Amino acid sequence: MTQLQRLLLHNYTAISNLDALAGMTALVHLSVDSCKKLKNVDGLADCRALSSLLLGKTKALENIDALAGCTALTYVDLAGSQTIKNVDALVYAPGLERVMLARCASLENVDGLSNMRSRPGAKRSRMMTELDLSACPNLASIDGIANLKGLTRLNLRGGAALTHVNALRDFTALEWLSLRQCTAMENIDALASCTALRTLNLEGCEALENVDVFGLFPSLKKVTLPDGATRTR
Question: What is the Cα 12 distance to its own chain's centre?
């Protein structure tokens, strides 16, 4: 078993931990999707070959701190993990290329992504161009994605705790951005440097006042205003 490289555990509702996987140093791909009672991943602490990890749709996972030892990670899917507050352990995975974090209802920040790099013009197969952080109502800061300047599409819909998007300054490849229902959003001036921005959704951004979007963002082709009205040019 210690030489096992791939393992799929789908919808095993009774699993509360992964302690049985301790010592599986050859494990490369692990899917623990929809294991709703999973509380910790401590058993993965020594899985240093682990490259791809799916931990989506958990309801009891308290933290992913043990992943600090999984330095070979390139892909992590935590979408729908409702109780995770941060992804700090991912800062130790310098080769991380893609991460899925939508519907992480308790997520407060993405500082663990600060070592990820994505630049316009980089080799496309190794560059994250899209990021979905939608339905993360407690996400108060996106500073951790400041180095992902190669993003072309970013979904922050439902980020009710976000007040600004300063981390997106100089995201010159960004073409599509949704801030729909970011109800506390007060300032989007940093987007003026997003020279490729074509589509912007501000529906429900009720804290924004008197924003001349076409004047501020000359590249815009379509915008949905806070009141839900759509404008094109």
Answer: 25
For 165-185, write each residue's pLDDT tens digit.
999 999 999 999 999 999 999
Q: Are 21 and 43 in contact (CB under 8 A)?
A: yes
**Segment 84-125, tens digit of pLDDT:** 999 999 999 988 888 999 999 999 999 999 988 765 554 544
Cα 202 from chain centroid (whole Å): 20
CA–CA dist 226, 46 (Å, integer): 48
Q: Cα(198)–Cα(171) distance, rounded to whole angstroms?
A: 13
**For the chain, what is the total number of helices (H) and then of strands (E)?**
1, 11
| φ, ψ dihedrals at 6, nearest 5° | -135, 140
CA distances from 77 to 29, 30, 47, 80, 207 (A): 12, 11, 17, 9, 32
Report in angstroms the alpha-carbon separations of 123 from 51, 119, 135, 189: 19, 9, 30, 30
Residue 233 CA to residue 180 CA, distance in Å, equals: 20
pTM of the complete model: 0.89
Domains, the chain, ordered by start? 1-100 (3.80.10.10), 117-233 (3.80.10.10)
Q: What count of other Cβ atoms lies within 10 Å of the Cβ of residue 22?
A: 15
